[in-house]
C-alpha cells in the first residue's frame, strides 16, 4: 500500500506539530543552538535564521517546518556529530590535563619524600647536637668545678707559701745585709719572720697538719712532671750533661739501648732519693731538737726515739721516691719489652737477663718495692721465658743436624758453634759479681738441655762407624765443649760429667789398641783375664814375643791417635797403652821366672838372662 505525497506531507506536519508542542524540548534545542553559536560550530546565517523564528503559534511553526523538513534533519545530524566531536575533544583535553596532574602529583610526592628525608636528617642532627651540647654542658660544669677547685688550691698554696716561705724582697734584704755593716729594721723584721717560720715548721711536723700532706703531694707531682719531661728528652733529644746523643738512636743495639735506659732510671732514682732525703733531713734534726728540750735522764728512750724518727722519715722519703718514679715505669716497661721481642739470639737474651738482674739488685737496695722494680722484674721474667723458647730451638737445631764429619774426625761444625756460644754465655755470667738466682737458673737450663742434646747427637752421629772412629769422634766433640767449659767455675758440674765420659772413652780406646797389638802376635787367646799365660805349651811364641818386645815397641805405631785433636789426650792414651804393655811384659817375665825356678827342664835360666828386665822395658816405653 503506497502513500501519496499529500499523506506524507500531512504525517510530517502532524509529527512536527506534536514535537513543537513540547516546550522543554524546544527550550533545550534553543539552548543547544546558542551554545553552538558561541562555539562557532555552524554558520552564523543558519543560526540567525533559526533563532529569528517565532514559536508562539503552533500553526505558523508547523507551516515553517513543513516547508523545511530536510534542513532540520540535516541540522540535527550535524548537531549530534558536532556534539560527539566536542565531547571527544573535551575528553582528550581532560585526559591530557589528568596526565599533567598525575605528573605534578608524582613530582609533588618526590618533593615530599625528599622533604621528609631532610626533616629526618635534620631531626637526627638536632638530636646529636642536643646530645653533644649536653656533653659539652657536663664538661663545662666539670671544668668549672675543676677551675674552682684549682683556684681554691691556688689560694691555699699561696697562703701556705706566704706562711712558710720568704718572698724575693725578704731574701734580697737578708743577702744585702750580709754586705753592709749597718743593720736596718727590715733585717730584724725578716729575721723575726724567719723565726716564726721555724716555729711554724716545727708545729707542722709535730701535728701532721693536712697542709704537710698537700705539700708532699705537690712536690711529688712536680717531680713526676719533671721526670716525665726528662725521660722523653733523654730518649728523643740530647741535653747538656747527659748522654752524647739521644738513647733512641741506639735502639738497634739492644744491649746498649737497654743498658742506657736502666742506667738513666737508676740515676734518676738516686737523684730523687737524694732530693727527698735532703728535704726530710731537717725533720730529723728539728724533732731531735724538740725532744732534747724536753729530754729526761732516760738516754736509752731518747736514742730509741731518734732511731724510730729516722726510720719514719726514711719510709716517707722512700714512698715519695716511688711515687715520683711511678710515672716512668710504664714507658720504660714498654721500651724494654720491645727490646726483648727484638732479641733473636740466645746470647743477647741471656745478656738482657743479666742486665735486668744487675739493675734490679741495685734498685732494690734503694727502694725495696715499687713500680719500677716490679717492671724490671716483669721484664726479667719475660726474657727468661724467651730464653727457654730459644733453648728449645737450639736443641732442635742440634738434633736435626746431619751426620756429616770430616775425614780426620775433627769436631763437627755444630759442636764448634755450640761450644763458642756456651763460652760467650759463661763469660757474661763470670763477668757479673752479683749474678742472682735467675741468672744461675738460666745457665743451668741451657747447659742441661745442651749437654743432653749433644749426647744424643753424638750417639746418632757415630752409629754404624767403626769402634775406633766412633770413640775418636766422640772424644773430639766432647773435648771441644770441655775446653770451653773448664775455663769457667759456673760450668764445673757439667765439666765433671764430661770428664767421666771422656775418661771412659780414653780407656776403651787404649784397650782396643792394646788388644790389636796382642792380636798381631796372636796372644789374646793364650792369655787369661789377668794377662797370665794359660799354659806353657806355647813357650816358643812367648819367648819370641818377649825377645823382640823392645824392637816391636820402637816399630809400634799409633796412627789412629793422630786424629785426636787434643795433644794431652793423645799422650794419656799412649801412656795407658804403654802401661798395659809394660804390665803384660812384667807379668809374663815374672810368670816365666817362677816357672823356670820350679821346672828347669823346660825353661833354662840362660834364656831368662837374655831377656831384658822389666825396669829396662819401662825405660824403653817411656822413651818412645
TrEMBL record:
Keywords: Golgi apparatus, Membrane, Protein transport, Transport. One of its GO terms (cellular component) is Golgi transport complex. It comes from the Eukaryota. Pfam families: COG6_C (PF20653), COG6_N (PF06419). Its main location: Golgi. Residues 204-597 form the Conserved Oligomeric Golgi complex subunit 6 C-terminal domain. It is found in: Golgi apparatus membrane. It is a peripheral membrane protein. Residues 74-176 form the Conserved oligomeric complex COG6 N-terminal domain. GO terms for biological process: intra-Golgi vesicle-mediated transport; protein transport. The keyword Membrane applies. InterPro entries: COG6 (IPR010490), COG6_C (IPR048369), COG6_N (IPR048368). Required for normal Golgi function. Component of the conserved oligomeric Golgi complex. Belongs to the COG6 family. This is Conserved oligomeric Golgi complex subunit 6. It comes from Albugo candida.
